[in-house]
Amino acid sequence: MAEAASTQVKILESTRIKPPPDPPNSATEVSLQLTFADTFWFKIAPVERLFFYQLDNSTSTPAYFNSEILPKLKHSLSLSLLHHLPLAGNLKWPSDSPKPFILYTPNDGVSLTVAETNADFDRLSSNGIDEALELHPLMPQLISSYDSASILALQITLFPNKGFCIGITAHHTALDGKTTTMFMKSWAYLCNQENSALPIELTPFFDRNIIKDPTGFDLDMLYLNQWLTNDGSASEPEITKNKTLKISTDEGEAPNLVRATFDIRPEDFKKLRERVLLSKSSEEEQLHLSKFVLTLAYVATCMIKARVENNRDVLFGFTADCRSRLDPPVPQTYFGNCNTIFTKIVKAADFMDENGFALAVKQVSDMVKKLETRSGVFEGAKEKLTPIFHIGPIQLITVAGSPHFDVYGSDFGWGRPCKVEIVSIDKNGAISMAESRDGSRGIEVGLALKKHEMERFSSLFLKNI
User: Fold this and answer.
1) How far is it, in rounded angstroms, from Cα 430 to Cα 441?
2) What is the pLDDT of residues 341-375, one digit of tens each?
3) Residue 2 falls within a domain, yes or no?
4) Assigned domain for 228 exists
5) Which domain does 440 fall in, by range?
6) Which of 135, 336, 379, 427 could form a disulfide with 252 if both were Cys (CB 3.0 to 4.6 A apart)?
């Protein structure tokens, strides 16, 4: 691991980018109600993504960047917000409203910070092991108060004579990873065009009426009240205190963690699949052996073993997109959250021997199979949040991102990203997943662990890959 160094940034500009004032719709107030898929994420920390872009010698000078690249990024951002007006607005929660809602009003805009740093671009955008906190100065913060919270914040940081990065922080109550990625692609698309029109596959769909509560339990208010009452255990003063949109700035374990990225290549999946098929457990039933299942099972097994001590519980799971799984199906361009989670609490000791990987595959496969039927998607919907409030000390292994988001497709005109990070995994125990940046059809996995655990994980991971 490189010697720890704090990333120093110089703030050059703090501004607010608004949609263009000319089109009539930018002068119109827009309000969106939260669905049960939104309130489910009410107190979850904002999602932070970082896109690194390498430039050549002629385009990476401060003079060229500030005169050519930055103005183009700002202009195309404004055009993109015209198609995503709610992103320029805020979450609002008036005292007389039972739940928050999204509100855009004319003159609203997205906070944009422009910065510069002399940090090592090549190291920060590599797969190597580095201090987790080094990426934090490259990320913007959402602005929040008791009754209002911004939905999106952006930061563009120049690494002179090397490249730049775009940090995007998104409020999970308002949008999921698929919506955030679509916005980035829309912004990139318009940065390459001379008009403000978006293709149909990048045009957001805003009608919230298409999200139907399949249970009849009023899940939107059920989830919100579970957050406010800590699932029924809070006193009245605590409930009042919890009824706020103020975002916590707690960095959690991040100051004690290092982060790294690991690649699983197509030939590795072949070996992992063969390993499962040779195990006894695979004979019991038909397993779902997708790249996602193999990745989560293998990484989770290595993470569990990396902690050595086995007398503990582990919660692992993932979030699944539900757009194509609802009845009727929801458009792929739906703006907002349209997903559900699947979790499983297991004993670490069960995964410590040579059959641990095969067992993990079976556990993940069983969860994935629930997605094959619409009834399985929302099975146990009322209790989906319960584990968050009732578990004690536990190892969390969840998934942020997806290999299907195509995050490396966000090309603003100066090439595809050379690295995409989900910075916020250092706050919530998640691992990140994305498609391999080299187009090899592999999967790259990002982790944030304590240094000694990362060293053990790396040894375990490379042993069978």
Assistant:
1) 22
2) 999 999 999 999 989 999 999 999 999 998 887 77
3) no
4) yes
5) 254-463
6) 427
Q: Which of 242, 270, 286 is the last residue of a domain?
A: 242
Domain membership flag for residue 171: yes
- Among the candidates 242, 276, 301, a domain finishes at 242
Averaged pLDDT score across all residues of the chain: 92
| Pair (423, 286) in one structural domain | yes
Confidence of residue 285 (pLDDT cuts 50, 70, 90): low
Residues 28 and 146 in one domain: yes
- SS3 per residue for the chain: CCCCCCCCEEEEEEEEECCCCCCHHHHCCEEEECCHHHHCCCCCCCEEEEEEEECCCCCCCHHHHHHHHHHHHHHHHHHHHHHCHHHHCEEECCCCCCCCEEEECCCCCEEEEEEEECCCHHHHCCCCCEEHHHHHHHCCCCCECCCEEECEEEEEEEECCCEEEEEEEECCCCCCHHHHHHHHHHHHHHHCCCCCCCCHHHCCECCHHHCCCCCCCCHHHHHHHHHHHCCCCCCHHHHHHHCCCCCCCCCCCHHHEEEEEEEECHHHHHHHHHHHHCCHHHHCCCCCCCHHHHHHHHHHHHHHHHCCCCCCEEEEEEEEECCCCCCCCCCCCECCCCEEEEEEEEEHHHHCCCCHHHHHHHHHHHHHHHHHCHHHHCCCHHHCCHHHHHCCCCEEEEEEECCCCCHHHCCCCCCCCCEEEECCHHHHCEEEEEECCCCCCCEEEEEEEEHHHHHHHHHHHHHCC
Closest CA to 449 of 429, 421, 420: 429
Whether residues 87 and 226 share a domain: the answer is yes
Count the domains in the chain: 2
326 and 458 together in one domain = yes
